[in-house]
Amino acid sequence: MEMNTYERLKVSVIVTAANTDTMLDMSLRSISEQTYRNIETIVVYSESENKDAAFANSAVNDKSAEKLEVSFDWQSLAKSYKKVNFVNSETPDKSGCRNARLAGLLRVTGDYVLFLRAGDTLTINTVRSLVLKAESAGCDMVICENAVRWLHTPNIQYYNLNHFRIEDFDLSGEQCFKTFVDLCGSGYWWYYLNNKLIRRDLLDRCYEGLHSAFDGVAECFYFGEDLVFSSCLFCNAKHIVNIHNQYAIFNWIAEDDFIKLNAKNNITAMIDNLKQAVDVFSNLANDEKYKKSVKFAQRSIGKRFWWRNDWAVSREQFEASEKYVKKTFDIDKFGVCFFEEYITDLYPRYDAYDGVIRAITSDEIEIVMFDVFDTLILRPFFFPTDLFEMMNGYYNRIINNKSYTYYANIRIAAESEARLYYSSIRPNFEDVNIDEIFDIMSGSFGIPQEVCDKLKEREIELEKTLCYGRNTGYELFQLAKDYGKKILLVSDMYLNKDIIENILHKNGYEDCELWLSNEVGSSKHSGALYKHIISEYKLKEDLDKIIIIGDDYHSEVEVPESIGFKGYHLPKPRSIFANWNSWFYVGNFFHKIFRQNGNMVSGMGSFDMHNGIRNMVGLAANILYDFPYVFQNEKANYNLDPRLIGTFNCGMYLFAIVKWIADDLKGKNVSTIHFVARDGYFLQKAYDRVSAKIGGLPKSNYLFCSRKSMTPLTVQQPRDLYEIFNPAQITQQTPEKIIKALRPIIPQERITQAVKISQKNGFAYYKKFINNASFYRFIKSFENSFYDEQYVSAFQKLAKEYFSGIVKKTDVVFDIGYNGRTEATLFKLLSYPVNSYYIHDDCDLPFRRSKQIGYINKTFFPYHPSCTFVVREKIFLPDTPSCVGYDFDKGEPLFEEYEKKPVEHFIINVMQKNSINFVDKFTEFFGDIFDEAVFRPYDAAMPFEMFLHYSKPLDRLIFKNISLEDDFGMDESFNLTEFWEKEMENYKLGDRED
Hints:
The protein has 994 residues and is α/β, with parallel strands linked by helices. The strands form six sheets. Strands 1, 2, 3, 4, 5, 6, 7, 8, 9, 10 and 11 form an eleven-stranded mixed β-sheet that branches. A five-stranded parallel β-sheet has the order 16-15-12-17-18, sandwiched between helices. A five-stranded parallel β-sheet has the order 20-19-21-22-23, with helices on both faces. Helix 9 (256-284) runs parallel beside helix 11 (315-329) and helix 27 (642-665) runs antiparallel to helix 39.
């Protein structure tokens, strides 16, 4: 078969093998089955280790070779894979395969290179997907996902938290190596080579460096070998991206004998060799900015080595080598890497995708049919009829209705009536078209023709605007096209052919024939449309040459099979999302939120009665389950997937809040809304996106302030000292903490004498207050010993000048909450009240302060949620330093010393990125018709609240890697999951069974 233009690019796959590699056949079979056809395979072995394999190249033609006694049947292998080139590396490798890889590089003629170790396999469409991405993105390395098959088990599993599974990377320049250094300690997939397609010129740039890098490594254990290779690659790369849903499978079963043999012989030497490889990485990352990341990576790699191999040694070796590993890699204690801790079966669900790919590329198949809607084309709705809901306002406007008529019901009824009417006058014709539907609306329902014409035109316009391509469907379509299949598109649909063709062409579907039920008069559902096509193409004797791919199991699987050809199921995203497909469990969150009775608030009512909620859920489903062949962990509702949590839970919540703010601000005399740092960072991003579409809203500003920066601003007179801490925080304070918090308003000479002054007044400087009374006594002594009225007055004057230049009388602020302290402080400084928006309050202070000061405070929640500030805040905090004060001379905020935590913040970052992406997508689709997407803000926040209050324990473990600084005056350092668990226990919350 003739290759396509992109397949002119050759991929060289280098497979390294040793005499213990009894699974080389598995790797070669995997390569030979790839849908990408321009592949050269090079198997490299070391003659000193594989003397019995030296004849492999000549085995096919040399019959005498068959007489040799070998530990592995190379003759049969060479006969089975005649196009494979077997190469002797000519340099002995006592362990690992570094020289074999370097020798293989001298033989490659491809444009791209992929490294495998004997036993590694690839899912069937992996190479093709990697090459397509490399070419479309113009990058020099593309990375796919990883899966693993464990020793002596048939299960192939993926890592839930694999970075390349849950994130879209697009790295350029220095960011390539920086990201590698920051994250390579958190998952082996960063440095293992089997998941990386590398452009030839990148390898050419690395070749000399690889040789010199390995000069200092005596013998290279495979962990270390891959680390050296990948370190050089990332260091020299210019552009790196990744793809999803394609897997490089690492078979631990293939490493069984290798590990046992080497570990029992000399595990200490293996540890030394691994350390040498780590040193190569460390030398490349020899920069102060990488110091902590390098240390983390060194420890993690040592831990991973021991975790993988502690079973392979005797008890005596174990005790001695355990100490040696700890000393060599500076490890305090062993443990499983957080990102590698959670795994889930990839199969049996993924094999459904494999089946579709194999069918499309089979030489036996000549015609591939595709369903159109939900298979190749998606709408941002949960139900197709939700489109009609988006026309309710339009209908009432064009008829100048003084009341309100629910047009969607009219449209649905008109279609139903049209089907009844036309089936009675043409019983053999199984469908109607859009013209006939609106004829019924005009003739039978009495709606004026000119109104019907406008409604029809509007519906068609919305279809063309809102319909968009399904990525998985397009990939399958393009695969069929590349393999030269005849492509037929078949649809049970009322839209006319020209409309659907317009939608298809806009989304890249070309060179295919479209068959519609409303044109032929036959439907897929009954099978008559298939029979008509079979008759037209005279295929009655060739049914085994046809397949159909679609989202409706009855129409695209059961009906075709009853006729005699094969159907393949590509489930629609919303059926996966709602867990309605019995073959694809994805968690029960949809049911618990929107379908379970017994809630205080009706989730069913919010979903069934508000199309805006359905639109959000439908869009989230499309984003998350475009690729539907996912097997999820049944112990979790959210599969420990930050993309799901970010898109669905956080994305809807974020949009709900900014839409609530926007709706309230519309038409008011407000100049600026200030989003208080850092809680307001992502709310401001979302607000800016929404306000750009709505128009007529106040501009936004990011107001740098925090608990720490605002504390000294609250003090204008001695009695204000009693406000600086909440009563619940008082006994966690010390004189030292209070002096530190109020440093900007204390003369320097008194700060230097703070310890003596405190002790003189009877207070131990570093000791916590035993009760509130002791705190208030200290405040009295502070007033006498530290408070300086002139110093405070000068500070307040500078603060007033600073803030009055930012916050005006007609401005408002947004803060996550909780007690009106910010508003009270601003009032003291500015002498005018500033209205505010909160998520919620946590006591009666906002009411008291608003009444006292005269500002208006509105809360998103009219109550105090049980699961409150810590988790809620952390999910939306950016990885940036907190404001701790102000340089009034320069007119700018001051920030704490802060070091980014790329590993710790990675999960949160994915959630935040996907939540903003959801707001972007929803705004893109519905920004011009927001008013038609009707919903109550709280209903859109319900998924987030249900996640916070009723998630499963395994879902909450996604935050186990995240620590919390003591920003709350509690004098503790928290693990977010542990804190969350305690809060769940305190409020008697947790997963609710059906």
